[in-house]
Design brief:
The chain has 16 helices and 18 strands. By secondary structure, it is of the alpha+beta class. It folds into four domains: 39 residues; 127 residues, Beta-Lactamase; 118 residues, PAS domain (Beta-Lactamase, 2-Layer Sandwich), CATH 3.30.450.20; 172 residues, Reverse transcriptase/Diguanylate cyclase domain (Alpha-Beta Plaits). Strand 10 and strand 11 form a beta hairpin. Helix 2 runs antiparallel to helix 5. The radius of gyration is 36 Å and the shape is elongated. The chain starts with a helix and ends in a 6-residue tail after the last helix.
Length: 573
Amino acid sequence: MPMPPETARQQQRIKILEERNALLWKEKNVGMETLEAATLLSTFDTSLNKLDDPRLLLEQILGRVQQLIAFEACAIYLVDEDSSFYPALCSPVEFLPQIEQKVAQRIEDRTFSWAIKRKKPVVSYFSSSRTTMILHVMTTISRTRGMFVRILNENWEGIADYALASLSLTLPASATALERYELYSNLRKLNLDLSLQMEEIEKSRKELALSRNFLEDQVQIRTRELLKANEEMKIEMTERMRAEEDLMSSEKMLKLALLGVGDGLWIWDVPSGKMDLSSLSLEILGCDAEMPPTEGSILLSGEHSSPHLPQWEELILEEDRLRLKEAIKKCLTGETENYRLEYRVHGKDGTIRWILDRGCVVARDEEGKPTRIAGTHSDITERKTIEVHIHHQATHDFLTGLPNRYLFSDRLAHALLLSRRRNTGVALFFVDIDDFKAINDRWGHDLGDQLLRGVADRISSSIREMDTVCRYGGDEFTIVFPDMIDREEVEGVVRRLMETFREPFIIENHSLHIHISVGIALSGLSTSGSDELLKQADIAMFKAKEKGKNTYVFAEDFEPTGSKKATSPKKVR
């Protein structure tokens, strides 16, 4: 008896569903195996704390990526000290000129920059050579470490999605391994320097111990001679004199040692309140060289305090003076045996100088109370100046002096946090100089640099003190406006900003009329964070370019798309 048509259709449908279910299970198993393989590829057997050359690590990275995706050629670009990319390894090496040429093209059309921001695989096709390039940034939490570049003579659609996704597991782990290698390398150098310094300190300590032993031997010989020649009273007086001479000799030796390393010496007799400062200590503090020993001090506590404020204490900044008083108080009460404190003083030339003050209890009475505290003064102004300079270099643009993108990210995140607490808004401007590349090509980079400084000054002069303007890169600037209430207020700000560019820039006898395109993003419920707000402002700036430049566009006036970012033209300096 023939099967009814409806039953046949049901059986056919069941068969199709069973085949589809089997296919889905197969895809799931392949995906799980690929994920497990990618996880294993993200670990490195190389002992990073003993590795002297990162090339071995880079070769391991290329080898593991080869297991994920076969390639015709592959290269790893690392970030140099000046934030530029350079090819650290290429395989095969004969493909390096071809890869550098293609990378230069992708830097020019901003695909390279897009790959850095996207932090996912970016596939690019070269129609002229019928080749496909895959870019994937190698980044850690702290910063971008490099870029992985792959060339293959096939259509990228032939690459499995899970293979591309596996790159996003392997390459960040590779970047972390590179960062750990750099950290271990720096630690090895630091340990070597510390070992050398410890050897010098130990050598000095032994020499000082020999000198002290020699002096003690001499004092003992003299004491024995006096004991034989004097009566009991004279013996007692001689012992006191010996003790004083011993202390004076030790102090002289300490002064000589400190003089050699450039430190000043001070000694405080606690019962009398008398404080004696060496000439070098007075010089470091900026006091008169002939200043007599201090009788009483505002820094002393309890029964030894005095309303008199000595000259050297007057030079200490008031907030630092309180910290110094607290440190000395802990020594007097026995809470600590010594202290180490950095504080500021007013120099004779009106500048602020940094002093490192170290002190410790060197003598106690029969009840265990401190009777004498000694210490040193060191001028650390130069070290502090270098620390401030290094911090400024790390957070500011060297050309314009404006905050760089790292400080910008911190300022933007802080502004968004405050806006949520205050129930206000944040406006972010993404500013790009129109046709800046043409100016560079015509007048040269020196004039272009002067123009960038002029633009930075003009923008800075047109904003509030609470606002932050940053050089984001090349001819791009970002401005963070906290506590913005509504769009009308923001439009007034951007109009005033663009009005400042009506006047030409006079540089090297050239009158340059400059215009800017501004993308504006406003914080709100649709903005998840600083990265999203920056992305909206960036895309809005490109919309302003498309409108004919010399204008501004609000991100909320259009529907942003992810594809536009990858194809929008940008200038690179």
